[in-house]
């Protein structure tokens, strides 16, 4: 019998991510939702250099799950923090091409989440860097994310968004380090919802024809992002249940 196991299948065996864990939330849960960069520039077809050029199932599913979670949280009056990637046209974010320029549709929430702009439960934070924790820093030394955790007395954050292995992972890793360092009290757990995350796809055969580009196979890098997050101390779940 022919062995049809792919290199990706082999890799998943070597660095497995147990996504069978679930998160159960009830009315007493001190929980907040963090949405990372679910903007047109990363999610809407044809919306700039970093947007998909055609339908992408992983990204579409991420948007759907993020919007569904956001609605559940807001219906319960639970806090939501949405990071919005927004860049000045004259300040590049190396090594990436220009994207999500302030004042363009790229730097706006996707239509499925646009309603958050008028929700009292939602805090929107524009950021001009990969890591939302760093992007939350103010000139006076305060930090919007840290203040949000403390003000809302959040013990658990659920993280969704794009890209799993870049903006999501960087934020998760920094939040975990800050928690361990005692600057995010009362935060206890960082939970990554795998079905609510996605990354972009740049196959090797395409990347090799783009100067300076690195191949970025979507399924592989999504898996690696989840694996790295779990290795840093995050909980990775594939199901979230809301108790009535």
TrEMBL record:
Residues 33-206 form the Isochorismatase-like domain. One of its GO terms (biological process) is response to abscisic acid. GO terms for molecular function: nicotinamidase activity. It comes from the Eukaryota. InterPro entries: Isochorismatase-like_dom, Isochorismatase-like_sf, NIC1. SUPFAM superfamilies: Isochorismatase-like hydrolases. Belongs to the isochorismatase family. This is Isochorismatase-like domain-containing protein. It comes from Arabidopsis lyrata subsp. lyrata (Lyre-leaved rock-cress).
